[in-house]
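Protocol step 4 of 5: obtain the predicted structure for the target chain.
Materials: sequence only (see below). No template structures provided, no constraints applied. The aim of this step is simply to have a reference model before the mutagenesis design in step 5. Sequence pasted as it appears in the construct record:
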Amino acid sequence: MKRILFITGTDTGAGKTVLTALLAAFLRARGVRVAALKPVCSGGRADARALRRALGGALTLDEINPWHFRAPVAPALAAQREKRAVKLARVLAHVRAVQKKFDLTLVEGAGGLLSPLGEDFDARDLLAALRAKPVVVAQNKLGAVNHLLLTLEALPKGLRARAQVVLVSPATPDEATATNAALLEKWAGQECLHLPRFGNDFSASSVLRDRQVRRTLTAVLGTGVGAQKKSAE
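Step 4 output (structure tokens):
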């Protein structure tokens, strides 16, 4: 397969790590050699640790997350405060080196698509350089359609057609929760997938028993996954 999926979001806290961890656990259960990376992060490494758990220790924490910074601000700014530099070429080289060992690689961004990750590059630049399939995650609440339309518009034109949108149920649904998917399809011609809310502390193995969750993850991954060694059904 040797594919790359890039999981971005409309904002921080959209549900990127939850989706990335579930995809990793789902693929492992099917016998797929999968890597999950969050190359750059700031404000703690909880997300990277969640990915490591989902991978069952297939990668070390530093392989998953080589660049991490203390301040809970945009990674580029947090790196400046620590007098460190993150270069796009080095991030690309790391992802490519890991990718060689796996069938499919999941790369999670930090913040939204245009969040500055390092010196003169953002998540969009990394996604474009990797030629990865974009997966855009959003909380399914009022304002999501605007944020999703802006994110989809910002995607490189050659990759937008491949983009997949995943709406994650919010803690408190509102009137827009039931209408966002249809509205986005009307305005952008973009089909939406759905995930329920699991919270920060959930068991991937328990969640993956849900057939609808498995169907959503299969749809995110696209063709080729169903032929792997083990069926999730």
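Step 4 remarks: The radius of gyration is 17 Å. The first strand starts at residue 3 and ends at 9.
Proceed to step 5.
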